[in-house]
Amino acid sequence: MLSIDDFKPLALQDKPLFDKHYKKFPPFHSDQLFTTMISWNEYAHYHYTFIKNLLIIMTIINNQIQFRNPIGMHDREIYYQVLKLTKNIESDYPVVFIDDTSKVYLKENFPKLELIPQRGYFDYIYLSSDLAKLEGEKFRKIRNRLNKFKNKNIYTTEDISKENIEEIRKFLKRWCLWRDCESDNLLKNEKKAIIYSTKHFFNLGLSGLVIRVNDKIEAISVYEKMNDETVVVHYEKGSPYYDGIYKAINQEVAERVRTKYRYINRESDMDIPGLRQAKMSYRPHNLIKVFAISKKGIQL
Predict the structure, then answer these.
(1) Res 299: pLDDT
(2) Exposure string over 132-141, b if 16+ CB within 10 A, otherwise e
């Protein structure tokens, strides 16, 4: 029977285990990516276990345990064991990040479960060609801001590399000063995640692009392959002194990846109104929905 003791803390050296599992069961959501987990590990305290060719993730945030939906082939017995574990934890939503297919399976096998949409964690999926070309009336406002930036500034782009990674870290420190990261808990933890991912950038197999204005890095984007059709953008950061620079780095990345990847996953909005508005303005192709199991509906 599955127990909390079966879960071991996530560590960087575990990446090959996740890579091997994801070859059989490609991640459908950005939260499942090893980079996401290991970068946010100090905040979420990720743990994992493999059982019957299923990967089960556990997090401990503010001393509260949650489980992720098991990754692999559906198995009623494993779901039962995970649900049984939730009886002894405090969370109102003890199992999270359940996809549409798993939701249907759970309702068929555990009809009393109550599954609640996690709107703040829906991933935004875009056609890479849309973000690269920005054609049509629906992108007129974005094109206008982008063109203003291009008309006012002469800029160059380059890949993130071992030659410029230290300069990128310095830019990120400047960005955190601009945004006053230490005053906001989310930004403070995002800063730690970004610092970790840049420190281990090449071990994690990440890619990225920078924009230079006047030969100085003023924007960056970090991304990686999610599956054969999709690349996920983990984060973008830009200088507050250049209006439209976020539009520029967004388009440049889309132009860079569109011949290889049909879709760009730009992660979730975390229920932040401004972020949601910005992501919706780019007209997503679709949203990857996720659901959480309400503890009050768990009756075994």
Answers:
(1) 80
(2) bebeeeebee
* Nearest-angstrom CA–CA distance, 162 and 276: 33
**Rounded distance, CA 87 to CA 99, Å?**
22
pLDDT tens, 70-103?
A: 999 999 999 999 999 998 898 999 999 999 999 9
* pLDDT interval class at 1 (50, 70, 90): confident
Domains in the chain: ranges and CATH = 4-121+290-297 (3.40.630.30), 123-267 (3.40.630.30)
Task: Sheet containing 207-213: give its strands across.
Answer: 155-159, 207-213, 216-227, 230-238, 263-265, 123-127, 286-288
Over residues 105-160, the pLDDT tens digits come to: 999 999 999 999 999 999 999 999 999 999 999 999 999 999 999 999 999 999 99
